[in-house]
Design goal:
alpha+beta, eight-stranded mixed sheet, RNA-binding
RNA sequence: GCGGACGUAGUUCAGUUGGUUAGAACGCCGGCCUGUCACGCCGGAGGUCGCGGGUUCAAGUCCCGUCGUUCGCGCCA
């Protein structure tokens, strides 16, 4: 027989009764009846109950085994009497009568429980991640993650994509976040950057003629964390040659639809998935109707621009009028069937808007053919009728208003749309993954701080209309240039971002030059790729999916750290491995690095100590 | 960098208006228990109430500072 096991802990059934078997695993739980000891033996596959009774010389020894001891037992599979069958366990019809046992590894008293969920704090769980990962919930999530990645790989291979590895020690890429830097010993004063994404490499692979690339790629960004943002994360990175936007959608939609259908019941609830082709929503339309470039389409409310109504001569609401005269807009969010809602409902939303930095959230509610609410008296009946007609609402409904400069108004209206949907309740469609593509992103945007035009997303995207689109008289006209750039959105999460790339060096130079980057800067930062473009680059494009976010969606888990085996805490510290940590002096010397650390804060206690000393 | 929440036993938490020796559950240790499966019963150990300062006759509780954790903003696809 094998040294450690003949079967796994989820394997034995009635059919095995009478066999002598060997099992290894962890002591999950013990139930000690004095002359009779039950142990739930656990491995990653499941649990088998093993029994030691008073005739066994092992009993006194086994009573000392604590939870999480690793043991190996040999014994006979016996059928349980009908009244003690455990229907909750797949192995519940049998148990193993132990004839021999060996402790493979003792376990100290554990800092939190593995067998049951005791809600231990994240800091403790991360410090003892190996224990945390033994918990059933974590085993399930990590296994799911692995299965998702395996499925993605299979689906990509089936579509003739080749899987590549690209360098980790590389140069800064154009994503715009802070780089993690790695000092070079051989080149004093120079640094590698960890890739924020393999963006340039995948494009270079296209220029190398590989045609269809994918990678489950680690990406690194040195920005502050969030629940759904880590320093290291994984992307399903994809790039294709000789393709248009439509080819990207047509290629990726079956992968996504298939993947989501495969794992749609991971939480136990079977969910419907948008069928390809997914809706394509232009960026401008998304910002108008949903106030977001990652709209949650489960929310049925749609924002309407009603600037024209508040601009009417017979409407005398000065607060909005003055903003409109200054170039602002009014956006309206319908709130259907809220006639039974109390004053508190409206006040609550108003308070929420103040919390968001708005002066408030104006509204009109309609009942008995009349508008009511603080603003209603400024809007005469005729204008109210126009408003109702434009928004497709009537008695029993209400409408909320946001008024600001276009960008800010759209954004706040978007947040209000979510908030109102939530406040009304029961509106958000359940049990679905709703996909869409947001397309026609602007190539440039106005930097609010500097007042200058800069790239809004990926500077390597091809402008729609090609080089001619960049011929403008006024820099501000650049803001109208759209890019062949798109995002894939699911339930309000941006899952993917991509673009048809700029494969022509002259357009590249012009696109950068238009916003003040000299060609020399381009040559210095992206010289390799620019030169590759000059030696025959195919038209190409692709996208990158956030694998972690996809797994989060499948697990219904709002925190990214729950779907990764080993993760850093919110301060980007790995308390298990003790990283980051100080470097040894000889290492620094090798790297020609002298530290210039911030001065430690002087506390009152320190200064008091200094005085006495 | 900024804001909110939290910080009490190994873990998760309770702790009233500031008032006796700071409690519960799980875990741990000891004892009992032959059909449990979240086994049960009896007993016990375990606390720098994050840290520092202040107010007070009296502080886990109030105030100030600080550190830590977490969520968010800024930042970032």
């Amino acid at each position: 027989m094998h040294d450690y096991r003949s079967h796994k802990c989820a394997e034995l059934r009635k059919a095995n009764v009478g066999e002598t078997v060997k099992l290894s695993g962890w002591v999950n739980r013990k139930r000690d009846h004095g002359g009779l000891l039950f142990i739930d033996l656990r491995d990653t596959y499941g649990i088998t109950q093993i029994v030691i009774d008073s005739d066994s010389p092992l009993l006194s020894e086994a009573e000392k085994w604590r939870n999480e001891y690793v043991i190996c037992v040999t014994g006979k599979v016996v059928e349980r009497a009908a009244e003690v069958v455990n229907a909750k366990l797949p192995t519940g019809e049998i148990e193993v009568r132990v004839e021999a046992a060996e402790v493979l590894s003792e376990a100290a008293v554990i800092p939190f429980q593995v067998a049951e969920d005791d809600n231990a704090g994240e800091d403790v769980r991360l410090r003892y991640r190996y224990l945390d990962l033994r918990r059933d919930a974590m085993q399930k999530k990590i296994r799911l993650r692995n299965n998702v990645i395996a499925s993605v790989r299979r689906r990509m291979w089936e579509q003739d994509f080749q899987e590549f590895n690209t360098p980790i020690l590389t140069a800064s890429s154009p994503e715009g976040a802070r780089d993690f830097l790695v000092p070079s010993r051989l080149h004093p004063g120079k640094f590698y950057a960890l890739p924020q994404a393999p963006q340039q490499f995948k494009q270079l692979l296209m220029m190398s003629g590989f045609d269809r690339y994918f990678q489950v790629a680690p990406c690194f960004r040195d920005e502050d964390s969030r629940a759904d943002r880590l320093a290291e994360f994984y992307q399903l990175d994809v790039e294709m040659s000789f393709i248009t936007e439509e080819d990207v959608y047509n290629t990726m939609e079956p992968v996504l639809q298939g993947l989501f259908e495969e794992f749609a019941d991971a939480t136990g609830e079977k969910r419907a998935v948008t069928q390809a082709p997914f809706p394509r929503i232009p960026y401008d339309e998304a910002m108008l109707k949903y106030g977001s470039d990652k709209p949650d389409l489960r929310n049925p409310l749609e924002i309407v621009d009603v600037t024209d109504i508040f601009a009417r001569d017979d409407v005398e609401f000065r607060a909005f009028k003055s903003v409109i005269e200054g170039g602002g807009v009014v956006r309206a969010i319908p709130a259907p069937k809220i006639s039974e809602k109390s004053r508190k409902f409206f006040d609550g939303l108003n308070d929420w808007a103040r919390g968001e930095g708005a002066p408030g959230l104006g509204y009109i509610k309609f009942a008995d053919g009349e508008g009511a609410g603080p603003i209603a008296k400024f809007v005469p009946a005729e204008a109210q009728d126009a408003l109702k007609a434009k928004m497709g609402i009537g008695d029993g409904d209400a409408v909320f208003f946001v008024c600001d400069k276009e960008g800010a108004a759209a954004k706040l209206a978007g947040k209000a749309r979510d908030k109102i949907c939530e406040a009304i309740g029961g509106l958000l469609e359940q049990g679905v993954y709703k996909f869409c593509w947001i397309v026609d992103y602007p190539l440039y945007e106005l930097n609010e701080e500097t007042g200058k035009v800069d790239f809004s997303h990926n500077p390597f995207s091809m402008p729609q209309g090609g080089e001619a689109a960049l011929d403008v008289d006024d820099e501000l006209e650049l803001l109208n240039v759209k890019a062949h750039q798109y995002d894939c959105v699911c339930n309000g999460y941006e899952l993917c971002s991509g673009a048809i790339r700029n494969h022509k060096p002259e357009i590249m130079i012009k696109a950068f030059g238009a916003v003040g980057y000299d060609q020399s800067v381009l040559e210095e930062k992206f010289g390799g790729m620019l030169s590759a473009m000059r030696y025959g680059a195919p038209p190409h494009g692709g996208c990158a999916f956030g694998i972690d976010r996809i797994v989060m969606l499948f697990c219904d888990e709002p925190n990214l750290r729950e779907v990764n085996a080993f993760v850093m805490n919110g301060q980007f510290e790995d308390t298990l491995m003790n990283a980051p940590s100080a470097a040894e002096e000889p290492q620094l010397k090798d790297l020609h690095i002298k530290l210039n650390l911030p001065k430690p804060k002087i506390t009152e206690a320190d200064s008091a100590e200094a005085k006495t000393a």
